[in-house]
Write a structure and sequence with these properties.
Layout: E1 2-3, H1 22-25, H2 28-31, H3 34-39, H4 41-56, H5 62-76, E2 84-85, H6 91-95, E3 101-102, E4 105-112, E5 118-120, E6 140-144, H7 154-163, E7 166-170, H8 182-188, E8 192-197, E9 209-212, H9 215-229
Parallel strand pairs: 1-2, 1-7, 2-3, 7-8, 8-9
Antiparallel strand pairs: 4-5, 4-6
Helix pairs in contact: 5-9
The structure holds ligand BV8.
Length: 231
Amino acid sequence: MLTGAGVSAESGLGTFRDAGGIWARFDPMKLATPQAFAADPDNVHEFYNARRRNLVGARPNAGHHALVRLGEGLAERGGGLFLCTQNIDDLHEQAGSRAVHHMHGELLRALCAGCGARTVWREDLGTGTICPGCGRAGAMRPDVVWFGEMPYGLDAIEAALEESDLFVAIGTSGAVYPAAGYAAQARAWGLRTCEINLEPSDNAHVFGERLYGPASEMVPAFVAQILAEAG
Ligand code: BV8
């Protein structure tokens, strides 16, 4: 299972490439790269501080809750759900999903570029923030994966994909790699593939099944169908 910003859209968190999306208003190359952070850390901190403040008040929607039911239902039947998300929000966890794989990091964690310490962080971050691990100021950054940085847990994701019989992408435009490559990899390995999105994604043609509509409606229906098929 791979989720993207579309699964959190109905919880009030912005998507990136829809009309009016985050990258339609902000230049990702000036805000979501290590070079941008080195050049203007205050600007990047403010961008993520605003998103973190918005996240703190956000709540999961029916799509997130349905995926909790899917994980529990599959486990009861001796199966399992590997939930990988490109999202840096905590709405899957708020709904009750466990072992969520944040391949692009987490907005509610801070990383010290000096000592590598990761800390749960719900407040604003800035260039004067002191690292709780090493006591240094000026090295703290959001623990998110920027363009050109290695996403987290790629080996675990690939291993899970290899063991799976169904790959589902929910609420992602299929524009960002390596995440966008998983659908073709799943297809090549003979997995059943399904895309659930508001509209066809960039790699819609790769999927064997395609369901279009808001995640809060489509995901609960899809989960009910999968659990019914599983008996
Ligand atoms: C890397 C930071 C080296 C955090 C983000 C080929 C292979 C490997 C890399 C590349 C490659 N080609 C190019 C690259 C480089 C680059 C890349 O992919 N560039 C793109 C733009 C061409 N990738 C990287 O730099 C990655 N790192 O490559 O490392 C490497 C090399 C080889 C192998 C491994 C590693 C790092 C990528 C991570 C960058 N970080 N953001 C943040 O600020 O959030 S990217 C950003 O896009 C977010 O992280 C987001 O998660 C991600 C994906 O976006 P989506 O989630 O899909 O959101 P989007 O708005 O695009 O789409 C939402 C969809 O939802 C829409 O389709 C919409 O219709 C739908 N929707 C809307 N409402 C609803 C809905 N659906 C259902 N219901 C609704 N209500």
